[in-house]
Amino acid sequence: MLRLAQQGLRDMEESDHDRILLGFFSVVVFGRAVTNALQNLRTFDKAAFDQWYGPWQQEMRDDPLLRWFYELRSDILKGIAPLVGIVLGSAGRDALRPGAVTVSDRPPPNVHRGQSIEAREMLPLSRLYIAYLEEMVESGAVVIWEVYDRYAASKEPPA
């Protein structure tokens, strides 16, 4: 799931408008799928998983950037179409660059991990989101793989 979200971020850096939009939706949908996939591992070692994941889960609940992506993904999957677009042309000092993805029916988040965010474009916001997910997965690699190994062993057919 993380690799699909990362690919979405790379697609947002393309020049083709369809790839940019598909990339943004991939970041939103597959980014949230990372946490869903991780939470499935909880079944196999609740204590170890909760010890690692609990602080991350609380931070995700409290963080405006992470909540924004979570709520956007929820709306997309429920069929509540957000007004997502691409800037085709712009002029002026404060104008968004051509090719920038916008979500015009909701203001972008302006805080992440207690730090102010100046960006209004979805590409830098998506970079912050993916970087957070990468850090979370990396921090839990030992727990994730131990729990995954137990899960895989439970699925092996008897000898």
Describe this structure in words.
- It is a single chain.
- The longest helix is centred in the first third of the chain and has 24 residues, at 17-40.
- A two-stranded antiparallel sheet has the order 1-2. It has a two-stranded antiparallel ribbon with strand order 3-4.
- The chain is 62% helix and 6% strand.
- It has six helices and four strands, in the order ααααββββαα.
- Helix 1 packs antiparallel against helix 5 and helix 2 packs parallel to helix 5.
- With 159 residues, the chain is mainly alpha-helical.
- The protein has one domain (2-155).
Please write out the topology.
Blueprint: H1 2-12, H2 17-40, H3 46-62, H4 64-77, E1 84-86, E2 101-103, E3 111-112, E4 115-116, H5 122-139, H6 141-155
Question: Which key phrases capture this entry?
Answer:
159 residues, mainly alpha, two-stranded antiparallel sheet, 6 helices, 4 strands, 6% strand, elongated
In short:
This protein is mostly helical and 159 residues long.
Note the total helix count: 6
DSSP helix fraction: 55-70%
Query: Can you summarize the main beta sheet?
Result: 2 strands, antiparallel
Low-pLDDT residue intervals, each spanning 5 or more residues: none
Strand order of the largest sheet: 1-2
Task: Please give the number of β-strands.
Answer: 4
Q: State the secondary-structure class.
A: mainly alpha
Cα shape: elongated
Strand composition percent: 5-15%
Number of domains: 1
* Measured distance between first and last alpha carbons: 31 Å
The gyration radius over C-alpha positions equals: 18 Å
Query: N-to-C SSE series?
Result: HHHHEEEEHH
